[in-house]
């Protein structure tokens, strides 16, 4: 019977993120080196690795790239589960001898051939790490980004902490990719696989929340809160709030309600009409505190429904995705 080959995983831990490269590539910005050292993130790293390799767990071979303290913590944790761990040195920990002019270690770019390397029975650790990273990255079928950063949207005439029941929201414009500061990305991400792959966001199971005769479908982690009669949805992102309202029109014709909404937008300098489509009025509110609110409002079955996607700053792609789910799913309880 042929000997089974352990699944190879490269685990890179930075102060700002943890990167797991194996059958799939996962970036966990919520599991940081700081969190591992403080004791609250190590278990999450273990769970993510186990989730990524599936039935191969724990028959896997982990190459661990982290600082000494994090390496010690994760190595003990992984080996206690029967996982093979191979720690490697960070580039910042390479001995002065390897960095001297007389050293046979030669730094080369990813796209250049390595020359004048140490001739030994075994490839140098740093070279092996780069080779393993390329092998795993090129073979990965999915690139999963988890726990990305937050951004903002808010409604006009309203500060971030206050809520005013208004009209509607506008569609958000996705940030220009040219505005991404590549220099801020970890050097470990600069592989051919990352440069050529389009990230596929792995979505957790959404939740359906309901209260007071209405319901909404949002990402996992959201909940409904009610304060002074105002309903809003909040999740793990502290920079995003989704305001919700449904009011009976009491027989007022829909055309008259929509006309009044347009009049309010026209009179209020903090509001800007974005579009009217499919019976929905979309507008933006800028309260003046740097936040933004994207509103959508529409009439259905004797009620006016309003959703306001409120962020502290310009919305991120992740926030826009959550807002889109809110706009598309808010309505009466089924």
From TrEMBL:
- The name under which this protein is listed is Type VII secretion-associated protein
Q: Please name the source species.
A: Corynebacterium poyangense
